[in-house]
């Protein structure tokens, strides 16, 4: 092989091979520096300053407990004078229709029950009134009649009730925990404060009417058919700073849909019963269908702390982007600008070997 190569060598140098010399335009150089400055501003300003790319992050783990307070009274023909306190209002008979109207016992199936039934069918067809018969059911009497919803709201005074929210959070990656009842909050302050976004932004006691109002709704209107309110607690913490600056931020919004055009089964309601025995020893119950406002407490947040690994990753990514600046400028100048052909001629110049003083060396 060595002899073969020696024989071919003179043949290869008989041709004058043109060389390409890269000539960098001053305008292109300025554009390149401008793009590099923009990339540098992005890496420093956005990645490191705004997004804190030098930090390791963790999501919040949270637990919440609540305590409601408030007392009101009602005086109706059905219930009479009655006092309502926390134990009464804090809780998480079959009418004729097409499926229950009958003509004889043959139309009633004993032991059957439907989704909307108030009891178990006995198999008997009995008079509901002077003209209508219905299938008899074994159920609590009288059966529920929810065709009329009290308006205004039955417990309209609940607007002034208060809700104490106790929230504990933990960032396991950093072993950092805190609660929304801050260290500087005293027992005296806690007994008198009510949350206000301006004057008392860290008080954990909220007036129910103010929560609904902050979400842009009326408590009295919402209480008629019920609804669902969200109390959002945001814990975004920079753990490179002192822990006293890691503070909860509260916001409020209504969670159930209020679409006037599609208002099927609106609001929020639930049923609960209270049982007792009368003078004869018979078991009785008071069934309450409550239209109320449910409060969902949603906790979210993110904590960040300096870590060398994400710092080096982002620095490396930034340096790689700076290297892309030259390629990007070349693409713009050579393929996108109106004078791309002019720049292409100026960027590359074809010269012969002898013009660079190489011809004489080859002859030798």
UniProtKB/TrEMBL annotation:
The chain crosses the membrane at residues 34-50, 315-337. InterPro entries: P2X4_purnocptor, P2X_extracellular_dom_sf, P2X_purnocptor, P2X_receptor, P2X_RECEPTOR_CS. GO terms for biological process: cellular response to ATP; positive regulation of cell migration; positive regulation of intracellular signal transduction; regulation of chemotaxis; regulation of metal ion transport; response to stress. It comes from the Eukaryota. It is found in: Cell membrane; Lysosome membrane; Membrane. GO terms for molecular function: ATP binding; extracellularly ATP-gated monoatomic cation channel activity; identical protein binding; ligand-gated calcium channel activity; purinergic nucleotide receptor activity. It catalyses: Ca(2+)(in) = Ca(2+)(out); K(+)(in) = K(+)(out); Na(+)(in) = Na(+)(out). ATP binds at residues 67-69, 162, 269-271, 289. One of its GO terms (cellular component) is plasma membrane. It is a multi-pass membrane protein. Keywords: ATP-binding, Cell membrane, Disulfide bond, Glycoprotein, Ion channel, Ion transport, Ligand-gated ion channel, Lysosome, Membrane, Nucleotide-binding, Receptor, Transmembrane, Transmembrane helix, Transport. The keyword Ion transport applies. Glycans are attached at residue 160. Disulfide bonds join 102-125, 108-135, 193-203, 237-246. Functional P2RXs are organized as homomeric and heteromeric trimers. Forms heterotrimer with P2RX1. Interacts with P2RX7 (via C-terminus); this interaction is functional only in the presence of ATP. Forms heterotrimer with P2RX4; functional differences between homomeric P2RX4 and P2RX4/6 heterotrimer are minor. Interacts with AP1M2. Belongs to the P2X receptor family. Receptor for ATP that acts as a ligand-gated ion channel. This is P2X purinoceptor. It comes from Canis lupus dingo (dingo). The lineage of its organism: Eukaryota, Metazoa, Chordata, Craniata, Vertebrata. The gene is P2RX4.
């Amino acid at each position: 092989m060595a002899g073969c190569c020696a024989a071919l060598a003179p043949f290869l140098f008989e041709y004058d091979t043109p060389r390409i010399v890269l000539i960098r335009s001053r305008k292109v150089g300025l554009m390149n520096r401008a793009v590099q400055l923009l990339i540098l501003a992005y890496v420093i300003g956005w990645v490191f300053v705004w997004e804190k790319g030098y930090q390791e992050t963790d999501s919040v783990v949270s637990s919440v407990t609540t305590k409601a307070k408030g007392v009101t009274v009602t005086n109706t023909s059905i219930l009479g004078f009655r006092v309502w306190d926390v134990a009464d209002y804090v809780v998480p008979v079959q009418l004729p229709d097409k499926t229950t109207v009958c003509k004889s016992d043959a139309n009633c199936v004993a032991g059957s029950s439907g989704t909307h039934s108030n009891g178990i069918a006995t198999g008997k067809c009995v008079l509901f009134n002077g003209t209508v018969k219905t299938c008899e059911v074994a159920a609590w009497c009288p059966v529920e009649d929810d065709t009329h919803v009290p308006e205004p709201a039955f417990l309209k005074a609940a607007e002034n009730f208060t809700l104490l929210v106790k929230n504990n959070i933990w960032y396991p990656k950093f072993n950092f925990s805190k609660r929304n009842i801050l260290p500087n909050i005293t027992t005296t302050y806690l007994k008198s404060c009510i949350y206000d976004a301006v004057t008392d932004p860290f008080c954990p006691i909220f007036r129910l009417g103010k929560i609904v109002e902050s979400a842009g709704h009326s408590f009295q209107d919402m209480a008629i058919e019920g609804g669902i309110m969200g109390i959002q607690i945001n814990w975004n913490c920079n753990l490179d700073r002192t822990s006293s600056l890691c503070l909860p931020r509260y916001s409020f919004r209504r969670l159930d849909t209020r679409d006037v055009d599609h208002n099927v089964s609106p609001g929020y309601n639930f049923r609960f019963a209270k049982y007792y025995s009368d003078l004869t020893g018979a078991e009785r119950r008071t069934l309450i269908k409550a239209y109320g406002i449910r409060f969902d407490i949603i906790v979210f947040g993110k904590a960040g702390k300096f870590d060398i690994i994400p710092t080096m990753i982002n620095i490396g990514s930034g340096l790689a982007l700076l290297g892309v600046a030259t390629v990007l400028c070349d693409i713009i100048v050579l393929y996108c600008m109106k004078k791309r052909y002019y720049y292409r001629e100026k960027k590359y110049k074809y010269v012969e070997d002898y013009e660079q003083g190489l011809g004489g060396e080859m002859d030798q």
